[in-house]
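Human: I hope this is not a bother. Would you mind checking the protein record under this note? Thank you for your patience.
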Amino acid sequence: MYRKDRIPSFKSKIKKLTIKRNMGWCDDPRSKYYNKLIKFPFKYSAEQLYRKDNIYDIILILNYNINPIIKGKGSAIFIHVAKKNYNNTLGCIAVSKKNLKKIINRIDKTTTINIS
């Protein structure tokens, strides 16, 4: 996923989805949409994907807790753009925008990313 207004076209062998103002990712285990892409307005808690800062200018969605989804196990686990000071994330992995573009250029839909 990426912010088309901030990221010019880039090469990718995986499907790209443009982040729109009303997009979010449900992080509320009470919702049937837990750990899934949603649209605002939304009555449950969800992570806003269209942000003022740049950390979600590019997002790689990791297949963590996707198939099957287990409520409470974790949601919105992404690789995304790091803050300038590389502050800790809330469970995600953050890298520079430059390095994230390099990663995206090298992976395809058969790539497995192992995090240890």
The radius of gyration is 14 Å.
